[in-house]
Amino acid sequence: MPKRTGDGTHRSCVREDGQPNARDVSVDGGNVVGRWTKSFSEASNLKVQFYYDHTHREIPNLFRENLDTFDWDFQHRFPLWKRHDIVWGLGYRLSDDHVGNSRILAFIPPNLTTELFSGFVQDEITLVENRLKLALGSKLEHNDFSGFEYQPSGRLSLRLTDRQSLWGAVSRAVRTPSRIDRDFFIPPGISPALSNGLAGGPGFVSEKLIAYELGYRARLFDPLSVSLAVFYNDYDDLRSFELRTNAPAIFANGLTGETYGAEITATYQVTPWWRLHAGYTYLQMNLHTKHGSADTTSEDQEGDSPHHQLLLRSSMDITDKIQWDATVRYVDNLPHQFVPAYWAMDARLAWLPCKNLEFAVVGQNLLDNRHPEFGTLPARKEIQHSIYGKITWHF
What we know:
The strands form three sheets. The chain has a 20-stranded mixed β-sheet that branches. The chain has a two-stranded antiparallel ribbon with strand order 1-2. The chain folds into three domains: about 20-145; about 160-305, no CATH class; about 305-395. It is about 0% helix and about 70% strand. A hairpin with a 2-residue loop joins β3 (about 25-40) and β4 (about 45-60). It is mostly beta strands.
């Protein structure tokens, strides 16, 4: 039913182009975290954490969701003999999702409860005392979408001198399927681009990554330290959008790709109470369609990530109870989405009346009234500047 505005006219919850009015979108919820830590020694401790989150989203006449997430984590660290530092843990997550479908889009089934069981183990081995270390480990998990997944990793670090170190790492990671990949549906006739509709891909599998990293750290002199890292990421089974003749389009794993780049950071301790930090990141992304894929658009997502990003941060402990932080960010343009490059600044003023209590005022995106960061027109939303208060209590 249309809503009546203050001037006596009527305003629909959905625009003439079928998109929802942004002012009618509502998101609310809350979360709570409980954490217990027990230290047995400097090299041995035990951590248990419980997390609960409730989120409600509603876009009138389009989509409604109530999502409850329960998460439990256990972690134990202990030394073994003289050269091994072991960390292992277990985790369990339950997600209870209830969706209100519409004639425009749907998740089928509308109500779904999923479980995720996980475990990990890592052994940091001292090969040469105070010189060479090797960390080996793996994460194992079982989820309701793709079943069993494994994610091993290895990291070798070499201390060249008291002020210089070199490290390299190889790891495997996955992005398991979500309800968007498997259960999302749009009926025929809703969009001209989807004349036959869209059906979630029942055979969608996890997206896979093999990551290679190489880094160097140095303390050039006491107040100044720098770090340089280069990376190469090899992706397989990335999500593709497959149009089909006389059948709904589906999500599939029809893309491969690679990203590579570098990151350099520097930290300068100007005084005992004032610290400066700078960072720069370069990223190049290449995507490729697999043989047999009918996807003709997803390769354009190469232009959805910025090539250049710059960060400058100043952190001051004005007194032992008052802190002042300011951060300036530069993000390069997104050519595929026609989002221009932008500068942004955030600031934080905090008062710590005692060890466990903090009051803070935070300002975000203070250089302009609003600016776009992602999304294509006309549905793109711009990020506004904001100021909010925050109270943190540690116990």
